[in-house]
């Protein structure tokens, strides 16, 4: 009769894989991956704890599953806070970007007026954007599709000109601007691109 002691490895409780994954997801939910990992950590944690209870001792890892659950719930509880912060921060960032682009647009229109005055003093007439670039009075970025969120164009008869700065989208700028040979920078004549009641008014 074989009296060799039988291995008990097959009867030893083993860690439930779902508990391990729940814990991993719980840890990840505390990182930038929180929105992707928090809910799986909760689901797998509940499933794992149920499986462990029903396994009659064959499975272990309830502590890991519980830790994954707790971390998952914490990350989900933070979701409303993150959404509130985003709701406050995103409009503020957008407005800051608009204001910065608008200030740059005014500066660029002023640069065009200086370039036009310089060109007129030397040539007795005003030029369009390409002419001013060729004369090295403007850089070529004024011909690009969008320069700091604005489009620029110049209409000229030679004896006068109008330089326009128009926002590429409402997100890149609220207002449009223009100037001519009197060198005064004004809000756009389009009421949709000017503060209420100030279409065509000087910025001063």
Structural class: alpha+beta
How many domain modules?
A: 2
- End-to-end Cα distance: 108 Å
Average per-residue pLDDT, rounded, comes to 85
In angstroms, what is the radius of gyration?
A: 33 Å
Beta-strand percentage?
Answer: 5-15%
Number of helices, counting only DSSP H or I runs of 4 residues or more: 5
Low-confidence segments: 4-9
**Order of strands side by side in the largest beta sheet?**
3-4-5-6
The coarse overall form would be rod-shaped
Order of helices and strands: EHHEHHHEEEE
- How many DSSP E strands? 6
- Most strands sheet: 4 strands, antiparallel
Helix content: 40-55%
3D architecture notes:
This protein has 204 residues and is of the alpha+beta class. Strand 5 (177-180) and strand 6 (186-187) form a beta hairpin. Helix 1 (17-28) packs antiparallel against helix 2, helix 1 runs parallel beside helix 3 and helix 2 (34-54) runs antiparallel to helix 3. The protein folds into two domains: 12-77; 102-193. It has five helices and six strands, in the order E-H-H-E-H-H-H-E-E-E-E. The strands form two sheets. It has a four-stranded antiparallel beta sheet with strand order 3-4-5-6, covered by helices on one side. The protein has a two-stranded parallel ribbon with strand order 1-2.
Condensed summary:
With 204 residues, the chain is α+β, with helices and mostly antiparallel strands. It has helices at 17-28, 34-54, 62-77, 79-123, 129-134, and strands at residues 14-15, 59-60, 150-156, 161-167, 177-180, 186-187. The protein has two domains: 12-77; 102-193.
């Amino acid at each position: 009769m074989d009296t060799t002691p039988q291995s008990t490895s097959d009867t030893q409780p083993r860690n439930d894989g779902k508990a391990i994954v729940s814990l991993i997801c719980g840890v990840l939910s505390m990182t930038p991956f929180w929105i992707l990992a928090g809910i799986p950590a909760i689901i797998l944690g509940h499933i794992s704890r149920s499986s462990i209870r029903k396994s009659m001792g064959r499975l272990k890892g309830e502590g890991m599953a519980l830790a994954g659950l707790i971390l998952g719930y914490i990350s989900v509880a933070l979701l409303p806070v993150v959404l509130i912060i985003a709701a406050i921060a995103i409009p503020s960032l957008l407005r800051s970007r608009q204001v910065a682009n608008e200030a740059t647009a005014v500066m660029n229109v002023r640069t065009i007026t200086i370039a036009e005055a310089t060109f007129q003093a030397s040539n007795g007439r005003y030029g369009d954007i390409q002419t001013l670039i060729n004369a090295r009075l403007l850089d070529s970025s004024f011909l690009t599709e969008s320069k700091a969120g604005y489009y620029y164009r110049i209409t000229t008869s030679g004896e006068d000109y109008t330089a326009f700065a128009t926002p590429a989208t409402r997100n890149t700028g609220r207002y449009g601007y223009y100037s001519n040979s009197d060198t005064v920078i004004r809000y756009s004549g389009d009421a949709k691109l000017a503060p209420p009641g100030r279409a065509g008014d000087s910025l001063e």
